[in-house]
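Run log // design_07
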């Protein structure tokens, strides 16, 4: 793991307008995340962690401040360049697995792969040997032909993690990845994230309100009232 920051956040502010009231979701947040780290952002509801997640994922812009990901200042990117960043540099894992119920696990993953790797002929790349190994590590290689309804919650979340990794992103952003799981499946999924971080050197930023979940990360950062404390 090098000391080169993969993510740099400087003096980040985000203000929403709710009716006639300004909501200050972020108030001067700054942080560095080094390539290959597994970092947990911990905070209660309303602390600003989800807003930070959305800004890092280029899903919403900040009011002020700068975010640099993999050497790119997000404020200088066009909409098309932000889309490319989401396709190739950042993988997303959400609390609600967001799997399409009519597709198999494999097709849910291949849909994201197609968006990220399709060429002029419209053909999709095959799963690489490295990705097939990830499916084995996640314990779902034999579940690829099953639709979500035939999978447990833990298996669905593993499919969601595989989907986030299929295009080889430099960073995985995980938003409450165990929020819909029982304690046994939560521990299994968090252990898998830790294993992927250690085995592959995958940079992972996990948003969570659960301090027990944060123990699986290599470093924890606490947020409160829109600030990193």
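design_07 sequence
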């Amino acid at each position: 793991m090098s000391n080169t920051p993969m993510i740099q956040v400087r003096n980040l502010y985000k203000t929403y307008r709710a009716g006639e009231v300004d909501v200050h979701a972020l108030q001067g947040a700054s942080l560095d995340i080094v390539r290959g780290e597994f970092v947990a952002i911990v905070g209660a509801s309303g602390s600003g962690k989800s807003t930070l997640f959305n800004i890092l994922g280029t899903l919403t812009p900040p009011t002020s401040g700068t975010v640099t990901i993999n050497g790119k200042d997000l404020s200088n990117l066009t909409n098309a360049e932000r889309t490319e960043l989401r396709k190739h540099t950042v993988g997303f894992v959400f609390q609600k697995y967001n799997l399409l119920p009519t597709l198999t696990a494999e097709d849910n993953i291949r849909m994201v792969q197609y968006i990220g790797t399709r060429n002029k002929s419209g053909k999709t790349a095959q799963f690489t040997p490295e990705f097939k190994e990830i499916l084995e590590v996640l314990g779902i290689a034999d579940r690829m032909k099953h639709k979500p309804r035939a999978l447990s919650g833990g298996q669905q979340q593993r499919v969601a993690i595989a989907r986030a990794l299929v295009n080889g992103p430099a960073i995985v952003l995980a938003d409450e990845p165990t929020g819909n799981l029982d304690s046994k499946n939560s521990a299994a999924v968090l252990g898998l994230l830790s294993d992927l971080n250690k085995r592959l050197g995958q940079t992972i930023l996990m948003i969570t309100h659960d301090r027990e979940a944060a123990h699986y990360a290599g470093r924890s950062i606490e947020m409160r009232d829109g600030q990193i404390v």
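The radius of gyration is 18 Å.
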